[in-house]
Amino acid sequence: MTPLVLVHGFMGGSAQWAPQLPDLADHFNVIAIDLPGFGQNAHLEPIETIGGFADWVISDLRAKDVDRYHLLGHSMGGMVVQEMMSRDANSVDRLILYATGATGVLPGRFETIDESKRRAEIDGARATARRISATWFLDEQLAQAYEHCADIAEKSSPGAIAAGLDAMQAWSGIEFLPKIRSKTLVIWGDGDRTYPWQQTQHLWQTIPAARLAVVPGCAHAVHLEKPRLFNDLVLDFLQ
Questions:
Q1: Residue 113: CA atoms inside 13 Å, Cβ hemisphere, count?
Q2: Distance between CA atoms of 232 and 238, rounded to whole angstroms?
Q3: CATH number for the domain including 89?
Q4: Domains in the chain: how many in total?
Q5: To which H or E segment does residue 70 belong?
Q6: Which strand ranges, in their side-by-side order, compose the sheet holding 69-74?
Q7: pTM of the entire structure?
Q8: Where in the sequence is the domain holding 123, given as residue range(s)?
Q9: Coil, helix or strand for 13?
Q10: What does the H/E/C string look like for 111-138?
């Protein structure tokens, strides 16, 4: 059974995949990562580059004796898994890029990275966690999964928030996209406030073996807004 590795996004954590585990665990050995500075690894030293995150995940997988796997990355985690592909492509069977892009400066985002940095310094980690979590949902704070998502985001250390924003801002994976050879699924919610259609379209049309799934009536957290549909898309692609 090929393991399925899940890499969360900025201010996320492995606990965000709770709606996926019952369905996916019936078919795969699911490995949900907590990146350093976030989730259950909030106590670890933050990493300041997307490549550094990729190296950390690969090292963690090797420590678990995992040398062949499917790979799914959400948001900033989608950047991380693109870097993993550039380093460990022979180990990756299928790739899922979800609510992500290949440009770290995030053109069209609900606010610029610089604005997020400024507001995080002024507002503090907890307020930043709750404010940014709201943007993930079409119904913002009224979404059913908002509180759960915000609780996980609040675990992010202040250093990890700053480091994560710096890592995204400094990263670009555009040149590597044509070199991705794994079969790839690109998933995007049509109300995403973080990654506009142009980023999604670029992934879909540039990666040679990419397929596209656009989910209507969702924002940046399809896996929490429409978990059953998200799970079905993942399982259909991987099987």
A1: 19
A2: 10
A3: 3.40.50.1820
A4: 1
A5: strand 69-74
A6: 30-33, 4-7, 69-74, 92-98, 183-189, 210-215
A7: 0.96
A8: 4-238
A9: coil
A10: CCHHHHHHHHHHHCHHHHHHHHHHHCCC
Q: How deeply is 102 buried, as exposed, middle or buried, from its count of CB atoms within 10 A (0-12, 13-18, 19+)?
A: buried
Residue 88 contacts by C-beta under 8 Å, 6 or more apart in sequence?
A: 58
Give residue 136's identity as a one-letter amino acid code. W
Q: Residues near 137 by Cβ (< 8 Å), separated by ≥ 6?
A: 143, 145, 146, 149, 219, 220, 221, 224, 225
Tokens of 201: 């379209």
Show the tokens assigned to 52: 């550094």
DSSP run (H or E) holding 85: helix 76-88
Burial tier of 22 (Cβ tally within 10 Å: 0-12, 13-18, 19+): exposed
Residue pLDDT, tens place only, 82-119: 999 999 999 999 999 999 999 988 778 888 888 888 88
List the chain residues with pLDDT less than 50: none
